[in-house]
Amino acid sequence: MNRIVVVGASAAGLAAAETLRREGYEGPLTLVGDEPHLPYDRPPLSKQLLASEWEQDRLELRRSEDLAALDLDLRLGVEATGLDVAGRRVLLADGSEAPYDGLVVATGVRPRRLPGEGAHVLRTLNDALTLRERLEPGLRLVVVGAGFLGAEAAAVAWRLGARVTVLEPAAVPLAHAVGEEVGRVLSRAHLDRGVDLRCGVTVAEVTEDGVRLGDGEIVEADEVLVAIGSVPNTDWLADSGLAVGDGVVCDEYLEAARNVYAAGDVARWYNPLFGTSMRIEHRTNAAEQGMAAARNLLRPDARKPFAPVPYFWSDQYDMKIQAYGFLRGHDEVAVVEGDLAERRFVAVYRTGDRVSGALAVGMPPKAVRLWRQAIATGALWDESVPAPAQRS
Question: How far apart are CA 252 and CA 277, in angstroms?
């Protein structure tokens, strides 16, 4: 393989580039990123950076000298606009091209938006810095969406003295992912602090005065943050012939086409551990997937399926939330340690007859890490979950 291009310079793309070098690839290696910044870490954007506890230099994933040691053709601040699979070249917004023999697509996601102007989103460093400048005591902030990102931002804004309203279309935030009982626990964390959490409401548009709800009511705000999920950045692949459907469609090896792999938030791949296709928007998965894609690209005769136990964490108010596995679509939840009312517990999830996930709130890491092995080995629910456990 004479030339490799990685499109996407965040956690997944950087991990792929580093792995290629670490695994002995010495040829030309191009890393393309649409932002002008050196690769940086995104999870702190809605936590430490937004709270002004960290400055942006602390987010850098690698120092300039570390990147220089990789001997990259580093092209930052330029967007990929097209992919010619037959010609094996990536087309870039500045009119240049990046030819390749092997390609890793790691272009991530972009935030969904609402009609109307002036709302914040929270995906990039610049997004976070712009919102941070506006946060101050007494500010009326409306957060649209009570998922993990919206909840983290709401918690930070509340701590900084803002008057926060959270608008959520679901009856119970995050119930689709963590179950209704756990979702209610997370909801109470907002309500206990005086955050105005309104569930079961839809937002039609952003207005000059705040947001307009589906029933016509105006919820006034000084600033609006829209946190209603993300869209995979696959537009540039529209004419490439790659299969695209809520992400770049890959097999269990992360391969989308011959010598074309995908990694990170943009990759939808078949995870053989859970027997289903999934796309994961979490930091740990991005790095692990970038490494796996690079190894499989470099050694096609020794490829390995990418079958991880996904992991994520979230900080909201005084709660540390940690989770392993694939919680969506679960059939049952059982609290196996602690107490929901105290917001200190471990809940495990059943899909079919297997343990498919575990989530902990306010518990030490080892409490939930114990369940990782059960998930990784496909442990049977009835043999793993103590009875009687609270079930929902």
Answer: 9
Element (H, E) at 155: helix 148-159
Q: What angle do CA 294, 297, 301 make, to 5 degrees?
A: 125
Place of tokens 């998922």: 147
Which candidate, 384, 383, 380, places its Cα nearest to that of 370? 384
Q: For tokens 């079961």, name the residue.
A: 200
Helix (H) or strand (E) holding 287: helix 283-298
Closest CA to 77 of 4, 5, 9, 3: 9
pTM (predicted TM-score): 0.94
Cis peptide before 388 (omega within 30 of 0): yes
Phi and psi at residue 78, to the nearest 5°: -130, 130
| Encoded tokens for 266 | 């943009």
**In whole numbers, what is the pLDDT of the chain averaged over residues?**
96
Q: Which residues contact 238 (CB under 8 A, 6 or more apart)?
A: 244
* Interval 278-288: pLDDT, tens: 999 999 999 99
